[in-house]
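Continuing the batch. This is chain 6 of the set; chains 1 through 5 are on the previous pages. Same settings as before, nothing changed between runs. Recording input and output for traceability.
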Amino acid sequence: MGSYRICMCFTRKFRVTEAEPPEDVKEAFRKYTGNGSYMTAEHLRRFLVEVQGEKESAGDAEAILQQILQRRHYITKLTRHAITLEDFQHYLFSTDLNSPIGNKVHQDMTAPMSHYFIYTGHNSYLTGNQLTSNCSDAPIIKALKKGVRVIELDIWPNSSKDDVHVLHGRTATTPVELIKCLRSIKEHAFSASPYPVVITLEDHLTPDLQAKVAQMLSQTFGEIIFCPESDHLEEFPSPEELKHRVIISTKPPKEYLEAQSDKDKRNSSLERKETEEDDIWGKEPSSFSSAEQEDDDKSVDELMDAGANDKDENEFDSKIHEAPEYRKLIAIHAGKPKGGIEAALKIELGKVRRLSLSEQALEKAAQSRGTDIVRFTQKNILRVYPRGTRFNSSNYKPQIGWLHGAQMVAFNMQGHGRSLWLMHGMFRGNGGCGYVKKPDILMTSGPGNNVFDPKEERPVQKTLKVKVYMGDGWHLDFKPTHFDLYSPPDFYTRIGIAGAPADEVMKKTKKKEDNWTPVWDEEFTFPLTMPEMALLRIEVHEYDMSEKDDFAGQTCLPVSELRPGIRAVPLFDRKGEKLEHSRLLIRIEIS
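Output for chain 6:
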């Protein structure tokens, strides 16, 4: 029961009622029970096979039925051998028993690492913004527990030049000791996934401190560090080969001084960006580009040179400055040869490497060299990182990187907003192991060495239909007056696709007034030209006539992983943490 005070004179009372099962659920129950009142294990097995697309045996169906009885009828579970319509609805609306995607690794993990999208963090040690927040091992631990596989550490000499700190250089961020970060990585590296962790070191060290870092790495990780036998790899090993291994990828030392005018420009940009982007759920990701307007007239080579201030990789000019014991630990060499984007994307015979581009440089390069990027990423690794003016740790739209085969689309995991939700959604795939195999279309070459062109129009390959039945659980996750002081919430659902530009769309249901358990029963159809790259986006909002609508939960799911049938979809808060009870009941059809 919820009470809402009106005009200080009287109180309106609303009872939270459990909604009836949708008509489709009632019809399925009637069909598979032969219009009976109870569903047996065999009835359930037939429903799971014919409607849910499962391959359940009689034993599997019996085990599920027993789980339902255990929850619903604990005292009489030993004497019951069938479930009622209400039990059936409870099962369908249980996110752990009837999830929309699987939770096991199911993709081939024996291909080279360049064949996978890899869950990648940016400045993984920061607890907040890029300028003044604390550096800590806590966000590293949190990222690893969520399945992130690439951890970035910026390493600098301490004030006395005799030890190594992790911090965002030339900012007011407070440092953390490198050794503390390394020990935390070792302890938590494989808590969520057995597949390899890559540590990218943003190196600002002298050779003597590089030698000290080499000693730290060797003593901390010992034999789990992957050290290739040769100086350069001809092909990256597979995630399967590198299970429970740590890989070092680094750039040579460099020092630079930023012009004061550039600092002033960045500081004024910070004020503008924080005002624009720091809202409760983040702006809608742009259609395809997120480069700043001030960079529109710059060439990709100019953007690469500008980015070199922060992410310089001129390895080829700096080998002499590296400590040999340090260099021996580097398995994935980062290199950006001189000569601009053409040289950067050159494929070298018998040698693979990692290239880093800023989000703006990638967008510029994609305009004229999209197929060259795709071809490069078939063997080499491309890392994309946020532009330097994202001081509030916001993120960019990841699709442009993924559509061009970029394996490491690096994100500020401590941020929030819709772009980060897309990242979470992509890596819910393949059991959440942090490695998602790139679709074949990005890895194959045709006649004349032709590769996939992200700009090329494609016909519709599949059609996704999603019916949004109802939602529940908000009254358990939120206070009665969280959404509205005077009445229960007016929920509506936004649903759509993120992926190839031709596929992107957002639609919404009607709002349901004064109801904690809204029933929408609305169906949406999404034609997909590139279903293997599509993410199903779902958001729930509460309509507010006088102010911005309130946020009530979200999720993103890979379309290629969706299980057909009637499914329970868990919702997450704006930071990506799972809401304990809030969920939707939907039906999924793919044809």
